[in-house]
TrEMBL record:
The gene is pfkA. The lineage of its organism: Bacteria, Pseudomonadati, Pseudomonadota, Gammaproteobacteria, Alteromonadales. It comes from Psychromonas arctica. Keywords: Allosteric enzyme, ATP-binding, Cytoplasm, Glycolysis, Kinase, Magnesium, Metal-binding, Nucleotide-binding, Transferase. This is ATP-dependent 6-phosphofructokinase. InterPro entries: ATP_PFK, ATP_PFK_prok-type, PFKA_ATP_prok, Phosphofructokinase_CS, Phosphofructokinase_dom, PKF_sf. Catalyzes the phosphorylation of D-fructose 6-phosphate to fructose 1,6-bisphosphate by ATP, the first committing step of glycolysis. GO terms for molecular function: 6-phosphofructokinase activity.
Amino acid sequence: IKKIGVLTSGGDAPGMNCAVRAVVRTCLSHDIEVFGIYDGFAGLHAGKIEQLDRHSVSDVINRGGTFLGSARFPEFKEESIRKEAIKQLEKVGIEALIVIGGDGSYMGALKLSEMGYPCIGLPGTIDNDIAGTDFTIGFMTCLNTIVDAVDRLRDTSSSHNRISIVEMMGRYCGDLTLWAAIAGGSEYVIVPEKEFDEEKLIKQIQLGEEKGKKHAIVAITEHITDVNALAKRIQERTKRETRATILGHIQRGGSPMAFDRILASRMGSYAVDILMAGKSARCVGIKSGEMVDHDIVECLTEMKRPFRQDLYNLSDVLY
Ligand code: F6P
């Protein structure tokens, strides 16, 4: 293999730059030319392709976001659009593509692979919602950012004896919420994997007050309910001041922490290794500390991310 392309797609995640850097430097160490595709699949379709060298990835290891840019591009579901994208790659002579992103990006990689174009997927998303890997690139950094925000909310919530509801990202995966609840000492955890029982939550808050809890933090994943309306209902029922905070896109930014830098560096380099070994339509993961790769079709269809019931139980014990 002589020419490899790399792109980042979907929501950006801290550590994506480290993954691109690892792809570039691993390629160069094997005398493979490497090309950056700007703005995800949209940029691929538009032919935004540039050759990268060592210096293209200098000083990016500590930068959040993705210097390649990213985009959501639902049009890529259309075969005609993908055919045009493959033409763009062929124009430059790029023989294989490494796609760094979430499951939407994996779907793009899978579709290209099905059309005979070799692709490898790397899990780059804060959500930690991808099967076949214990951790996605960006999850740990985002988690740290959330815990820092929850610590701050704890200060003010305890000063005012208030209930704080904190809405966290994660799309339809509760990992960020669950892990942040343990690390941030939240009293109540509401995740999409468990049915939300508002009545039970209110009773628990009242019970907590009877036990002498002066304030409370409720960690909740986005898309479950309108947290501002929930705060009003809790305030009415408990007669305790309640505030909702939506952490929003702040969660996605910031310099990647060491864990994500190392994970992304390993994954980026591993992706090049498996392409050189002739593999295609694979996605990379980390399992018990080791790099692994799976069939991307299986990953998207059959493999399920296990829910961390152990952590959920732990959050109950530590309440
Ligand atoms: O997938 C990453 C993520 O940040 C999700 O947690 C969130 O639901 C979504 O992206 C937000 O997307 P956008 O940045 O397009 O609003």
